[in-house]
Amino acid sequence: MRRARDIVFFINPPNSDDVFTEYAQANTVTKGVQHTDWANFPHLGILSLASYIDAVPGLKGRYIDGVIHAFDAIIETVSAAADGTLAVCLSAITANYESAIRIAEAVRHIDPDIAIVMGNDHFTAMNEKILPRHRGLIDCGFAGNEVYASLSRYLVDRQKSRAIDIYPGSVRWADDRIIRDPIIREDVNQIVDYGLIDRTLPHSDTYTRNFNRRLGQRILELTGRRVTRGVPVEIGRGCIKFSGDDACSFCSIQYGGMWKNELPAERAWRVIHQACEAGYDYLYVTADELPLTFSRLLLDMAESPPPWWQSLQPEERPVLVGYARTDGMEKEHVLQAMRHIGFRILFVGVDAGAARSLMALNKPLRSKDPASAAGRMHEANLRALDNARQHGVAIKAGFVLGHLGMNEALLEENVATYAGFLKTGHDVIVSADIELLSPEPGSKDFHYLTHPDEAEAVSARLGLPISDGALRRRIAQRYRQVDTFDREEAIDDYIRAFMPGISKGRIAAARDRVRSECRQLGIVVGDDF
Description:
With 529 residues, the chain is an alpha/beta fold. The chain has helices at residues 16-19, 36-40, 44-54, 71-80, 97-110, 121-133, 148-159, 204-223, 265-277, 290-293, 295-303, 307-310, 332-341, 355-360, 370-391, 408-424, 444-450, 452-462, 469-480, 487-498, 504-521; strands at 7-12, 60-65, 85-91, 115-119, 140-142, 170-174, 177-180, 230-233, 236-238, 260-262, 282-285, 319-324, 343-349, 394-401, 429-436, 524-525. A 7-stranded mixed β-sheet has the order 2-1-3-4-5-6-7, with helices on both faces. A 7-stranded parallel β-sheet has the order 8-11-12-13-14-15-16, sandwiched between helices. Helix 6 (121-133) links the parallel strand 4 and strand 5.
C-alpha cells in the first residue's frame, strides 16, 4: 500500500552560475560564492516556511540549502523520499531561478505527482512571464511575503485531493490564464524550528566553519566579543523607503501588500531568546533600515528587556546585527537603544559618493529638494562613522558601482569617496562588499531596462545622458518577454543602455581598486574567505 504523501521540501536552489558552468565566464561578477552571507548563515526564508509547515498536523517540512549542498545531492535527496513527498517548494531569486527550474524539471521527471511550488522575489516580479512558459511545470506559486497560512491551506488541500480553493497570495495557471488571489495581511511568523536545519542534510557545520573563517576574528578585533554561530532572525519586515513605494533603484525586494510588519517588543524578545537557546550568539536581524523603519519597536525593546537577558553579563549576551541608513544612525536615542539591546554591527549601504549618484540610485528619502537631500546623505555617511565609533557599533559597509547615467567623472568621484570613507572608518568597518549594479527583476533599474521612455525621463531629470533611443529600444525588446537571462549579459546591457562610454571591465576595475584599498587597510572583503 502506498504511503501517504506528507513530506514538503523547502529548497533554496544553488546559484545558477555556480552550478551550470557553461554560464560562468572568466569575468563573472555575480557568482554566489562571492556573497559571503549566503554561506555563513542558515536561509531564514525556507527555514521559517519549513518550520511553519512542519507544525501543521500531517505534514513534514524539510530544509535544504543549495548554497551548501550540490545540485545532484539535492535531487538525490528528493528522489530517495519521492514516494512520500507531497511538494517541493522553491525559493527563487534571479541569481538561482534557472537552478530552480532545473530542480523542478528533475522532480517532475522523478515523480509527476509531486507538486512544484515557487515563491520569493523573482517569481513575484516575473510570474506573468514564468507561468505561461512553465504552466505544465509549476503547479502553484506565491507572491509577496504574506503566504504562510495560504501555503499551508494549499498543501493540505493538495494532500487530501480537495478542489482548488482561494489561497491569498497564490498565482497559478488555470483555464488558459493566470489566476491571482489577493494578498492579505499576516502576522510575522514566529514558528522557527532550528532542528530542521540538519534533519534532512547536514548544514550547520559548514555554516559555522564559514562564519568563523570569514568574520569571527574580525568581529572579535572590532567589538571585543567572540562569537561562533550566526543565524538570521525576523522581528519585523519592511523598509522606510517602501512606505512611499520609493525603493532604491537597485532594490528588488517584493514587499507585497504592506510596507511594514513587525512584532510587539515582548514577542521580538522571544524570537531572540529562541535563537540564543538554539546555540546562536550572532543574530542577523533581517529588516531594512532599522533606526528609521522600526524606531518605535527598538525603543520599546530597550525599555523592556526580559529577565533572561538582564541576568546575563554583557559579554554573555547575543551580538545583534542589522541594517541602517546613515541618516538613521544620526538618531542618537535610537542608536543608543540599539546598542543597549545588543546591536554591535550595522550593515550600512553607502552605495555612492557623489550627490548625483545618490539621486540616480534613488537613495534619499522623498524630499522637495532631492539634490539637497542627496548632499545631506553624503555628509551623513561620514557622521555615521563618528556615531558608530562613539557608541561602540561596528559597520559592515556596502557599495554599489554603476547607475543610470554614470559617467567617467562620477565613477572616479565615487571611487575616491569610497576610499576616503574606508580610510576614515577603517577602525570601525568590520567588512565591505563592493559590487557592480545588477538590474534585478522587480527593481527600478530593471524597469528602466524594459521601459526606455521612462529611463529617458529619469535621465533628463538628473541631467545625466544615456545611450540613444534606438539602442535602448532594442535592449528593452530583448528583456520584455523573458523569464530567465544571463545576469552577466544583463549587466553589460544595462551599462550599454545607460552608461555610454564606460564598459563593464572599466567598472569592474574600479571595484577591484576599492577592494584593494580594503585589503590594504585590513578590512575584510565580501569574497575573501
